Amino acid sequence: MSATPPPLPERAARRGRIIAVACAAFAFGMVGAAYASVPLYELFCQVTGYGGTTQRAEGESSRVADRSIVVRFDGNVSPGLPWRFGPNEREITVKLGETRQTSFHVRNDSDRPVTAQATYNVTPDAAGLYFNKIACFCFDNQTLQPGEEIDMPVVFYVDPDIVESEELRNGRAITLSYTFFPQDGGPEPVAAAPEGGATGAPSDNL
To answer: How many other C-beta atoms lie within 10 A of the C-beta of residue 75?
Structure first.
């Protein structure tokens, strides 16, 4: 004789428990994926240069090519940050593989200490894969006292392999752009204009 199936309310309750466990597992999985997605995305950008993400280099390039390229620099501050910020050199011409240093100047125009952090990108986006920074102030909190001003160095080189890129081999210029954002969570003062009046990076195609 076949076993008598459990009553309908019991079966419904069991099904409900199974669905609840499955939903909870799915939710935990999505939360874990969300936490993992940020470092994975950063790693993806770092490896591929996606979105103009530059590369990090531990030292100088092992080779220098005869070909040169123009590197332009751009500095901006976000609304609410009372800083003046801009490059000390608007552009320099470098040989591919040549290690060069430049700097950006920043001043806190407010009457209180302000902490900010810079993000960056390279244009054209594809050039990020070949732009190597040895030293940089980006992604480190910078705190300036009232009226304080400093120069912040950037040390970099452009990989000679850029000439092997179909998209970039005939390029003439790369633009490295930084934007500072406030990090101290204080009240938003009136925004300061970028030093020198620059508000955006040149749009030259590489």
So the answer is: 26
